[in-house]
Amino acid sequence: MRFTSLKELDRSEGTVQLQHHSSSGKDSIVLLPAPSKTDPNDPLRWPTWKKHVAFTSVCAFTFLTNYAIGGLAPAFFILSIEFDKTMSEISHLLTWPILVLGAFNFFWVPLANYFGKRPIFVFASLLLCVCYIWGACAQSYQSLLWSNIIAAFAGSSTEALGAAIVNDLYFLHERGAKMGIYMNAISGGNTLGPLICGFVVQSLGWRWHKWIAVIFTAVNFFAVLLFVPETRYDRDWSRAQLEASTSTSASASEEAVNAEKTAPTGVKMVGEPSDEPNAQPPKKTFAQDLSLWSGTPPTNLFKMFIRPFPMIVYPAVIYSFLCYAISLVIVVAVNILNPFILQAPPYNWKPQINGLINIPGLLGNLFGAWAGGDLVDMFCKWRTKKNKGIYEPESRLWLQIIPFFLTGAGCLIFGYGVQRVLSWVALFFGYGMISVALAACPTITMAYVSDSALPVNSDALLLVNGLKNIVAFGFLYGVVPWVEKVGYVDCFGTLAGIFVAIVGIGAVVLIVFGAKARHATAPW
């Protein structure tokens, strides 16, 4: 088997010319990756509405996976009584699905790279709906647990592939904001789900939480079936990226400048390589977009399965999955534990009131997604302009300082608030601050991974999403015995220390040495 280096696929190694200073004195953004000049079926050339509808449908799929599985948390106290299970056993309704959500990325992503993303999304969204019907009808703890596990198997298809679709549909300068929206869909399911579930459980019972999810997933299945075409596109990365970098530099030749076409919004379209066929392929019809078959690449499926694993040595991948894992651990730990805190003495809250703790969680998610997406994009634009139009992916990592301080402090506030039986206000503020990380950290770091390894971003993101859930499962499987043994202060104090060490030290090291590491590892 012949291995290919990232440098052979992308000569820019992540460092690209993103802004072009024209003779008129105005800066324009260079579209990267360079869209096809002749092919109307290039997803980067789709109408804006078509991109947004497809992206929204996938985000809804991602949201509903977490909405029905993680959203059941306010019912844990009631379920422990109904099924006569301990707090640790009931927590398995969430911890085992978390493991499956990560592990089966290694199953879905190679299949999607080989057969296409569309057939995977269509099949998995239907399976998710069927699993929620099963869960709503479950009459035993084991049946409910397995319905959640199989639902997580279906939903795991969107963990890495959803992020990869961002790179299929949008340009580099749009990627941060769109990744923020995608991360809000993931984290929003874990906050809006419990918030709604609290009221549903109190009024209608926990089964209706599942039936509501059935209705939404059925609608989403038809949205995916009708409005998510195949986004996989055979793009010649080495040529497109090389031309994008050379034709927009200050020393670009006159021929390259003549090949450029400037859009009316001040965005510069880079001409396609000169040896691209001039004949324009016919635009696919709506009926053709509905096809579940888009061909297979000239390789075998086995190679697709093993191809991602060598990338585990890339510093960007290691940093991203560790940041995502510890952010997920802290948020889910609060989700698992808070029903047993707030629905028991001395608080004695009802499930619908318990669910209100997710309001600060939702606000934290929204702020984190904005900070990690739009704010980072604005910061990167400023840094790129300051750097004479040259964009470095490490520019994104500077704003890791926001979750570094907020989430670290939030862990301490929540831990002390529970152990010292402080007002619910302390718990709410602590959880809101903790929730910032679950949206901000992966938005920043996954965009950083995509920028650093764009031609193979789906494989790189597979490692990030798969490994973070496996690591998170290891923590969360033992979080209840851990808290019972050492208390909330020591538990959440330790989590705070791990979080700030990973996020802080990793960001500093990569800001200083990240560019050198990218260029050093690209020929591997």
From TrEMBL:
The keyword Transmembrane applies. It is a multi-pass membrane protein. Residues 1-13 have a biased composition (Basic and acidic residues). Gene3D superfamilies: MFS general substrate transporter like domains (1.20.1250.20). Residues 54-518 form the Major facilitator superfamily (MFS) profile domain. The chain crosses the membrane at residues 53-78, 90-108, 120-141, 147-170, 182-205, 211-229, 312-337, 357-376, 397-418, 424-449, 461-480, 492-515. GO terms for cellular component: plasma membrane. It is found in: Membrane. PROSITE patterns: MFS. Keywords: Membrane, Transmembrane, Transmembrane helix. Residues 14-26 have a biased composition (Polar residues). InterPro entries: MFS, MFS_dom, MFS_trans_sf. Residues 246-256 have a biased composition (Low complexity). This is MFS general substrate transporter. It comes from Polyplosphaeria fusca.
